[in-house]
Amino acid sequence: MGAARTPRGRWVEEGLRALADGGLDAIRVEALAKRLGVTKGGFYGYFADRDALLEALLDAWERESVDEVIDRVEHEGGDPKSKIHRAGMLTFSSDRLLAIDLAVRDWARRDEAVAERLRQVDDRRMALLREMIGTFCSDPDEVEARSLIAFCVAIGHHAVAAGHEGRTRAEVLARAADLILNRTPRRHAPDG
Predict the structure, then answer these.
(1) How many whole angstroms from its chain centre is CA 97?
(2) Can you list the residues of the chain whose pLDDT is less than 70?
(3) Secondary structure of residue 119 in the 3-state scheme
(4) Helix H segments across 37-94?
(5) Can you tell me the distance from the alpha carbon of 154 to that of 157, in angstroms, rounded to the nearest whole number?
(6) Distance CA 47, CA 86 (A)
(7) pLDDT tens sequence across 130-183
(8) Which residue of 92, 157, 165, 183 has the fewest C-beta atoms within 10 A of its own C-beta?
(9) Is 90:69 a contact under the CB 8 Å cutoff?
(10) CATH assignment, 58-180
(11) DSSP code per residue over 2-15
């Protein structure tokens, strides 16, 4: 009986991990095989070449960070504001998904096909925001502005190193969400 083949999904998962950890240049067949503890021969049973793996990585990223998030948000239900919050948490609060997303954004700066794929993914994310924000905001210009602000905060706050003058990042993000979602701010009880 021959040795069991490394499943295709493990190659994809290891490729995503390498992308998140080291960017596009870290995705090399030999390096992935070493990380998986196998020879690279099994790779070619699933993928014609590295480009085929890269396409599979983009497919997996889109499926996990958009399709599965939207499905889960719809399945779990709730009001539009809680759906927006849940979608953001599922997508950008997971260290794994956030790292992959940021790596794809970096990759897109150098590859027009990846940039187009990223535009399609971001358009789907923005469409969800517009739909949800449009349920409590009727001005189309304001819906668009709130959607963009929400999206920028979700992606960009990780790159901001500034402090918040006696407030935690979590407190500032919660207040930003309140402003975007037109909610009354939640007051925290004073310590002590």
Answers:
(1) 5
(2) 1-4, 187-192
(3) helix
(4) 50-62, 68-76, 80-92
(5) 6
(6) 35
(7) 999 999 999 999 999 999 999 999 988 888 899 999 999 999 999 999 999 988
(8) 165
(9) yes
(10) 1.10.357
(11) PPPPPPHHHHHHHH
> Please, which residues have CB within 8 angstroms of residue 87's CB and are 6 or more apart in sequence?
69, 70, 73, 125, 128
Q: How far apart are CA 42 and CA 14, in angstroms?
A: 14
What is each CA distance from 32 to 11, 15, 25, 48, 56, in whole angstroms?
7, 7, 12, 15, 14
Q: Which residue has the tokens 């790779």?
A: 43
